[in-house]
Amino acid sequence: MAALHRQVEEHQSGDELDVNPVYFREKSCDIPRYQLPEHGVLPRTALQIVRDELILDGNARLNLATFVTTWMEPEAEELMAECSSKNMIDKDEYPQTAELERRCVNVLGSLWNAPSGGNAVGCSTTGSSEACMLGGMALLWRWRARRRAAGLPADRPNLVMGSNVQVCWEKFCRYWGVEPKYVPLVPGRYQLGAAEAVALCDENTIGVVVIMGSTMDGSYEPVGEVDAALDRLQADTGVDVPIHVDGASGGFVAPFLQPDLEWDFRVPRVASINTSGHKYGLVYPGVGWIVWRDAECLPEDLIFRVNYLGGEMPTFALNFSRPGAQVAAQYYNFLRLGRSGYRHVQQTCQDIALYLSGEVAKLGPFELLSDGSDLPVFAFRLREDVTGYSVFDISDRLRMRGWQVPAYTFPENLTDMAVMRVVVRNGFSMDLADLLLDDLRLHLRALERNPQKQPPPEVQAKRQGFSH
């Protein structure tokens, strides 16, 4: 039976058959980089050209800087490929994908002890940054409504958070005209403190952001302590301030590794929680999630209803069209792993992080800021008496072997403190951990034999692009 379609191939001479046809054709091919070529090329040629350029990228599996998932099972990758053409927003055309999203929201609501039971209020997003924006908007709209109902001005909102927050919160404040109030970090306290946060709150505070897993060192901020301090503030002043928990990483770790820690909707003032499905949710980027305590925490006038995709549907998002592949993959993980599977994966990551941090501490020149006891993440710096090289030198040398271990300075108030951080994710084995330690020992010996004069940490951070 003849094929319905025949692939169009360029004419080949006998000489062409002796060499890779892609590279042969490329000789006479115009391959512009910043404008469209006049003529296209064959699919295989385009594929080879792009692949060749991409081999210059780093190896994602050796990237210990990112929190983002870099390994999934082949079955999950197959499922994502099948769903990549589905538009997540088009719930009328793809109702079962929409149903999978609803199930995922309810799974997370259950995991985080939402009081709404099987009718959790939330949605998927392109990542935690969008989810944080949505959570911040809900806080802002609720604050405005309360102020206007009381006949009070609503033109000077502020948001309280630690100076270690992810940049998305700075963006939120700038984009929506909210004054950011930062709790500065100090030596020995590398996260938001409850007393310090509440001291910044007033009648214009729309909420306090508490991070479950700081990107600076992987530590959890004290949600319960902030809640209790805000209770005292309300008792003393009448000011009622809600909490948003940024659980970008910890939202998928704490329920399995620290199940007795009360940080979620068991804490009365927690109005909303976001997380990244593409971090410890174990899905390729990009997918995030946000869940509200109940419908009252999500103002109705933030929800839009559209009917131009074939049926009326509610939408609350900063993005519109996006693939349904990541949502399908998230539901795949929920089915594939279950509670015990997620617990096993996260515990394995933490075991490796604790092992690595312990071995790093034994090397001599380092001191730990965290050890991986919260997130499977730890940060460390050089002792003050080590002056012949910096963490930036170590980071540079590790890149020679493909390791991407970031070196950076802490935020304002601690910009003279430069650290390194290791993020252990699913797919990073104990064997790879030992190889990293071997290379670290090798490069430390080389740096100790060849000391060099060091510029200030903030200068080195800017040179390498790692400044906060």
The end-to-end span amounts to: 63 Å
The parts where pLDDT drops under 50 for at least 5 residues are 1-14
What would CATH call the homologous superfamily of the largest domain? Type I PLP-dependent aspartate aminotransferase-like (Major domain)
What is the total number of structural domains? 2
Helix count equals: 13
Helix content range? 25-40%
Mean pLDDT: 90
Q: What's the arrangement of strands in the largest beta sheet? A: 1-7-6-5-4-2-3
Shape: globular
Largest sheet: 7 strands, mixed
Structural class: alpha/beta
Keywords, please?
Aspartate Aminotransferase, domain 1; 4-stranded antiparallel sheet; Aspartate Aminotransferase, domain 2; alpha/beta; 468 residues
Summarize the structure.
This protein has 468 residues and is an alpha/beta fold. The protein has helices spanning 21-27, 43-54, 74-83, 95-111, 128-149, 167-175, 194-199, 223-237, 254-257, 325-362, 391-399, 430-449, 457-464, and strands spanning 121-125, 158-162, 179-183, 205-211, 243-246, 270-276, 288-292, 304-306, 313-315, 366-368, 377-382, 407-409, 418-423. Helix 11 packs across helix 12.
